[in-house]
Amino acid sequence: MTGGNFTKAPEEKGVNRAQSEVNKKLKPLLCTSAVVMAEVLKVLTCLLIILLQKRLNVKDTALSLFDSIVVQYKDTLKLAVPSLIYTLQNNLQYIAISNLPAATFQVTYQLKILTTALFSVLMLRKSLSKIQWVSLLLLFSGVAIVQVQQEGKKESSVLDSSSQNYMVGLVAVVISCLSSGFAGVYFEKILKGSSASVWVRNVQLGVFGTALGLLGMWWNDGTDIAKNGFFFGYTSMVWCVIFNQAFGGLLVAVVVKYADNILKGFATSFSIIVFHVDLIFTVGAVMVIGAVYMYSLPKAPSMLSSTGGGAS
Ligand code: C5P
């Protein structure tokens, strides 16, 4: 979806020299165009996969897309909700990162593990046993420890703390957590509630994402794009970010379709801890692994019969 974290550089006022250097390097790139590019890439990849599934029959592909996107337009409109929320979330994350110390942001953003579980219970009627709730708390704590320790090792934030507004950052991160949980579970509900493939759903999501991205591009950088062109400032690193955003988004969709959002939280936590090995990291890692084990323990028979299924 739209990646607000690279939409606009912070104002130079109140930002220290290191940040000014970063800004100078980023300045040539019109970041809103990269956001659009990531959405377009996602849609094109999905179209290619659908085409391959239809054995390269262009007519069949076009007809089936017309049916699932235009004829069943009510289904398509449903995707506007997560698209808008993800856009909001990605931009709020940028506000949060600019206003909070990095470690505070990293830790508080992990609260999305808990909001995701909460929305899964409320919207998907998932039932979580007490031990699974405890495992999620353990997971949150494990990742938080790892994040704090990692940030502690780095040099202090490049942002001058006088330019940061803690309250604004905190509100932004809390809303991001709520929106991450809600949008993820809403998307999961749509994906699992119909026979349409994950690729068709991503085309629908990407259509809204592209429209919103174009709107943002026109609003923020319209004049510059007209003057310098869409691809102005694209370096190989920018392409890496774009590919990461596009294929990362598709990976999220596949994980949500074949597993669920709660398990996605476990998977991303693993990816956070996997490269670090020392004492505190080992403690965090053991907590995360313990959480995975506890979460996957079979449920008590009474709970299974009353709810008809597990969380995964
Ligand atoms: O932090 P969280 O796990 O909620 O982030 C999910 C990310 O995946 C968001 O940046 C969202 O834009 C992206 N996404 C996507 N395509 C999907 C689902 C999520 O690009 N189908």
From TrEMBL:
A GO molecular-function annotation: pyrimidine nucleotide-sugar transmembrane transporter activity
Keyword Ubl conjugation set for record: no
Gene Ontology CC: one annotated term: Golgi membrane
Subcellular location: Golgi apparatus membrane
Keywords assigned: Membrane, Sugar transport, Transmembrane, Transmembrane helix, Transport
Record family assignment: Belongs to the nucleotide-sugar transporter family. SLC35A subfamily.
Designated name of the protein: UDP-galactose translocator
